[in-house]
Amino acid sequence: MLNGGGTATMRKGRLEAFSDGVLAIIITIMVLELEAPHEADLAALRPLVPTLLSYLLSFVYLGIYWNNHHHMLQAVDHADGVVLWANLHLLFWLSLVPFATAWMGSNEFAPWPVALYGVVLLLAAIAYLVLERILVALHGRESTLARAVARDGKGILSIVLYVVAVPLAFVGPWLACAIYVLVALMWFLPDRRIERVLAR
Amino acid sequence: MLNGGGTATMRKGRLEAFSDGVLAIIITIMVLELEAPHEADLAALRPLVPTLLSYLLSFVYLGIYWNNHHHMLQAVDHADGVVLWANLHLLFWLSLVPFATAWMGSNEFAPWPVALYGVVLLLAAIAYLVLERILVALHGRESTLARAVARDGKGILSIVLYVVAVPLAFVGPWLACAIYVLVALMWFLPDRRIERVLAR
Amino acid sequence: MLNGGGTATMRKGRLEAFSDGVLAIIITIMVLELEAPHEADLAALRPLVPTLLSYLLSFVYLGIYWNNHHHMLQAVDHADGVVLWANLHLLFWLSLVPFATAWMGSNEFAPWPVALYGVVLLLAAIAYLVLERILVALHGRESTLARAVARDGKGILSIVLYVVAVPLAFVGPWLACAIYVLVALMWFLPDRRIERVLAR
Amino acid sequence: MLNGGGTATMRKGRLEAFSDGVLAIIITIMVLELEAPHEADLAALRPLVPTLLSYLLSFVYLGIYWNNHHHMLQAVDHADGVVLWANLHLLFWLSLVPFATAWMGSNEFAPWPVALYGVVLLLAAIAYLVLERILVALHGRESTLARAVARDGKGILSIVLYVVAVPLAFVGPWLACAIYVLVALMWFLPDRRIERVLAR
User: Fold this and answer.
1) How distant is the Cα of A34 from the closest Cα of chain B, in angstroms?
2) Which of C 152-181 lie inside 8 A of A, CB atoms?
3) ipTM of the predicted structure?
């Protein structure tokens, strides 16, 4: 039992370390899209404003994922191979965020790039929910984690909002962007539910 | 003994941390090959499909290496200088995966790039097997690790399949790619043998 | 209590690990701006001197942030969601340092880039102070941390100096740069105040 | 004492983690210099051979630094602000290795790039020796570390060889490169002296 516990802790520790590494790199390489202009005046910065705004939105989203991932894994006791792959699946979609961000920023929030950005967010949100469900199934319905995420209204609501936002990008890209900002605000605070159950 | 154990644990911990860092960076910088197109319509994404497919394949391969490396090191008790270099040797070949992926993706799976991709996978597979053998030699034939990997059929089979796939790239690149996908599927699940022996 | 302590330690550990990861990546990707020239003689290196100087200054600044962040978190006992976001806020401004560095270096310290560099340093300094205040509020006025940073003269002075330096960039960019170097020298040594209080 | 020890351990742990992060990034971003050629035949790879060779040499050098840094810090008990800066000083010179590698590789080992590569190696070697001396001074002449590195012949010899190699680059670049390879081979094995003293 002690050995088993030690093994599980290590496994979870390395899962966290690898996820943190990938998230830290994703969040940082996005800034490489902000290329220094050749001119040295204020006007040269203006074309970068959409890129900066899309960088800011993606920075917040990746911060939210890091925060929630961190809180979810705190309530987790052990992991297995399926968890490792569900986690990599989440990281795969998040790794496409810099590409979607760059396309959206460099095209000044045109319909297709804004729609693609929403699709990537949608797939990442589904991957997060899948990871959460797999972790709950592994720990049992009576576990701390299961009780903490029992009614994951926010996760489902986010997915519904992304599904609404993607077609709206072709009506008005800023409508879709407003929804992305709304979802980000909704998630801005870390998952208090887990903190509350842990505190008991 | 306690001191020795502590030293070995630290050493293994830093080996894991460094390997995780390098693997996380390799897996993430590959996405930099997916450059945002200048046009903002769906057609602009089509030329990126081969690059995305080759990225997906390499992401899965690096995920497999991270998973298996993780499982193998869990069964490991201590390391020495030879292990550190055998590990760096593996990381060297894996660090060439982004280059091979980019060449294959940007040339739409042409024969030479597909063959080179297979050569890099082959050399990484050999480096992994060398690392495994060195770790087994260090821990002895009666160790948990030695029993877990005693009949490493999958490792040898992968090497045989790569050796077959590389010349096949010149007959039909998609034949070689089918073999790469097959090997990836074969390794998709983490090494249950080690889990089984650890569970005893 | 033990569980709570364990949770807090883990949380702080992952906060440190993520911050270290982001800071390590920021400090390292800056060097990508130093592109290898096509010519192979000494003269080809001369145009890179301003880029190298701005890289050196930013390297020292990021080293200072890493050092001070490290010392501050050593005096910290626990963290919450607000702390995580205050920390991400600091990392956001620091993530813009490579962009500001590249713009300043490639334009040979022209007024606007030098001013922008100061603005980014100013916003990072404010973000650091906000993080410090949030941590102090969380730990209470009698905590080790609160006593250590009670009279944060250096933090306030840095902000004042940046506010002076930014407009000076338009009078003479080298005046502003001299102030940036002065602030860096002022912070060069780690925060002895915290070390002193911890030593008691 | 327990608290002090705990603080020192943490400090050393974070020093190792940050150094590992920076070294992992440096070692990995070098591979970005190996850009995928537009053509898909074997001839397209030939111009990359010098770049690949210089990458291999730098990979081995950074592996050596990681290994030796790792061994040195294992014998270390605690750190202070001076140590943190001596460590950042070492990382600064190592962070210039990708630039020197790219210049040397893309100019097919021309005299000036080969000489610059040697200068960067020389400055990194001096920085390593400075870090070692500072750690020894901190731990005292009777410490495990001090006894382990008491007669650091290899460190001094490396510096002498670099000093010889740099001017030789202008006589024949391959002479200088031969010396760089020689020094790498000399350091290839981890520092057995420290292992020997630790084993006692």
Assistant:
1) 13
2) none
3) 0.87
